[in-house]
Design a protein that fits this description.
The strands form two sheets. Strands 5, 6, 7, 8, 9, 10 and 11 form a seven-stranded mixed beta sheet that branches. Strands 1-2-3-4 form a four-stranded antiparallel beta sheet. It is built from 13 helices and eleven strands. By secondary structure, it is α+β, with helices and mostly antiparallel strands. The longest helix has 90 residues, at 198-287.
């Protein structure tokens, strides 16, 4: 999920808080690198001294390679950190992608880190061509937005191309370029001039640049291909989801049409019954047959109630005002045929409280929860299920409480998903419960302890 802020025309969003924090942590680590890795513990000065003392070019090359390794190790945290910070952020200017803000952020972070290390440790980090070139390649890689590639693989690419540019610092042939202006780099190039080893340094530097540049290119190609494959897989999954949704919608449409025909077939005879009962009641009223009139009014009410129930089956968003007592009677009637019906206790603190719901669907919600509770019964314990309701000024709460086997903590986050099932059912039960309750503006809460039981609480807005 993206988080961010907006200031005028600029919008900044965070793709991944974890990546952002990792990047900031690496930048913070870079301030400790000069303390952990020094010229002395990399023995750069020792080998440079041996080269001058013995006139040995191999010692000079060894010192140069050690300096390249030292510079790469020191620089890697803040280069990777700057890349990850920029990669975790998305800048939009006037609702358009503004990648140049990411580019500027990378350069700003690198330059600020270089100068801060200089102030803190008194070590001059040259922000020259290698630094700028490495930063530009990082910016280019960040702009490609390989979102399906892991953070570790992206960091490996940054490390490869960073090491490649570090070899410029030891090459005398690059003297005209803004490179190698650090104290040890200049010392090694001066020693190369004294020992007639400039060609050797240029050769080693060129080979190092070529080797790591080739590795970076090959890694880049592999990452590009991997990202393309993962992107295709993601598109396939999206297309499959769209097709599945289309099939479900088609089935729903067909089912809806069939239900419409069925409802029409059911309502036609009900209309005839209502008409005949109305005519007969008028005759009874005219003849003064009071008892028959009362009976016929009951018949009319029953027919009207049946017609309303049929409408609620067809129109799932159709709601009516109904009392808690009436809802619980419907639920009790539906579960009365079950084997476990005698083990269920119904408690209503405020039976006269009313809610606005689809009576058919909501009663099925409670029945579904009772059935789940019955299936969760433990063999060594007598089943006990309570359907309880209470109300306050704003909400009416329905609770289904059982003493079953409960739900394991690691499964609690999955039980509301479509298709999840702890038994051999279709896995639509709890998804159906949550869907119906949320469409009514209510909420569902679940508390469960494995081995002790489960309490599911449904809160529905109270109807005044």
């Amino acid at each position: 999920m993206k988080r961010g802020w907006t200031s005028g025309k600029l919008t900044v969003s965070i793709h991944s808080k974890r990546v952002l924090l990792t990047g900031m942590g690496l930048i913070a680590l870079s301030f400790f690198m000069p303390l952990l890795f020094t010229v002395d513990n990399f023995q750069v000065r020792n080998f440079l001294y041996l080269a001058l003392k013995n006139g040995e070019r191999l010692d000079l090359i060894d010192a140069a390679l050690r300096l390249v390794a030292l510079n790469a190790v020191r620089a890697l945290p803040h280069y990777c950190g700057a890349f990850l910070v920029a990669d975790a952020l998305e800048f939009r200017w006037k609702r358009r992608d503004a990648w140049y803000f990411n580019a500027g952020l990378i350069l700003l972070l690198l330059y600020a880190t270089y100068r801060s290390i200089d102030v803190i440790h008194g070590i001059y980090y040259d922000f020259g061509l290698p630094a700028v070139a490495a930063a530009l390649f990082i910016i280019l890689f960040d702009k490609l937005d390989y979102k399906y590639i892991s953070m570790g693989k992206k960091t490996a690419f940054v490390a490869m191309e960073l090491i490649a540019w570090q070899f410029l610092d030891i090459m005398p042939a690059a003297a005209l370029l803004p490179v190698g202006r650090g104290e040890m780099s200049q010392s090694i190039k001066l020693a190369g001039r004294l020992l007639d080893g400039e060609n050797a340094l240029d050769t080693i530097g060129g080979m190092g640049i070529l080797l790591f540049a080739i590795c970076a290119v090959l890694l880049f190609i592999m990452l590009r291909d991997e990202n393309s494959l993962r992107e295709m897989d993601a598109l396939k999954e999206q297309n499959e989801a769209i097709r599945a949704k289309a099939r479900i919608n088609e089935m729903r449409s067909r089912t809806y049409q069939e239900i419409q025909h069925l409802v029409h077939d059911l309502k036609s005879p009900l209309t005839v019954v209502q008409t005949l009962v109305g005519v007969f009641r008028l005759e009874c009223e005219q003849d003064g047959r009071t008892e028959q009139v009362e009976l016929l009014e009951r018949v009319e009410n029953a027919v009207e109630h049946m017609s309303q129930m049929i409408s609620e089956i067809l129109y799932q968003d159709k709601t009516t005002r109904i009392s808690v007592e009436k809802l619980l009677r419907r639920v009790s009637a539906q579960i009365s045929i079950e084997d476990y019906a005698s083990l269920i206790r119904v408690e209503a603190a405020e039976p006269e409280a009313t809610v606005r719901v689809n009576g058919i669907l909501f009663s099925r919600v409670l029945v579904n929860l009772v059935q789940n509770a019955a299936h969760a019964a433990q063999k060594d314990r007598r089943l006990n299920i309570i359907i309880r309701s209470d109300a306050d000024d704003m909400w009416v709460r329905f609770q289904v409480i059982d003493n079953g086997r409960g739900i394991a903590e690691q499964k609690l986050k999955d039980i509301w998903d479509r298709g999840y099932s702890g038994s051999d059912s279709s896995g639509l039960g709890l998804f159906f419960v949550q869907d119906v309750v949320e469409r009514l503006g209510g909420r569902v809460e679940l508390q469960s302890v494995e081995g002790k039981g489960t309490v599911i609480t449904i809160s529905i807005p109270k109807e005044e």
